[in-house]
Design brief:
It is a single chain. This protein has a two-stranded antiparallel ribbon. The radius of gyration is 24 Å and the shape is flat. It is built from 5 helices and 2 strands; from the N terminus they run H-H-H-E-E-H-H. The longest helix has 30 residues. By secondary structure, it is mainly alpha-helical. Helix 2 runs antiparallel to helix 3. A hairpin with a 2-residue loop joins strand 1 and strand 2. The chain has 2 domains: 34 residues; 71 residues, no CATH class. Keywords: Membrane, Transmembrane, Transmembrane helix. This is LiaF transmembrane domain-containing protein.
Length: 129
């Protein structure tokens, strides 16, 4: 149990360290005169990253991470321009496609009732006597 806690702590430190290095690198590149788009360090990109990180930490179970990711992705895609084409035109379609893929590919929870009551079978022979 103790090794599991230490492993969890080491993973948290690694993730936090990587995040700090990435943010520092972006600030360094921006202050060096290299043109870094403004959307990289905006609130919606941070929300997108937080949603993906929470999803990864929880094995993509639950819906909280998905809500953060979708909201962050919608606002981030509105600011991205690729080859003079604004992605905001197709943001809704991309979100619907991603949501559909999630519904298709999410792990199935199968509940089987095989052997469901065999462990707790009662013997009613005493009642019939």
């Amino acid at each position: 149990m103790e090794t599991l806690i230490k492993k969890n702590q080491a993973e948290k430190q690694l993730g936090l360290g990587i995040l700090i290095v990435v943010i520092g690198s972006v600030f360094l590149l921006r202050n060096s005169g290299i043109d870094i788009p403004r959307w990289i360090l905006s609130w919606h990109t941070i929300m997108l990253g937080a949603g993906l990180w929470i999803g990864y930490r929880r094995n993509f179970q639950g819906g909280g991470w998905l809500a953060l990711t979708i909201i962050g992705a919608i606002f981030t895609l509105k600011h991205i321009v690729v080859f003079d084409f604004e992605l905001s035109r197709i943001t809704t379609a991309l979100v619907l496609i991603a949501l559909g893929l999630y519904v298709i590919l999410k792990p199935k929870k199968v509940t089987t009732f095989k052997n469901y009551g065999q462990a707790n079978q009662s013997d009613f022979k005493d009642l019939n006597s």
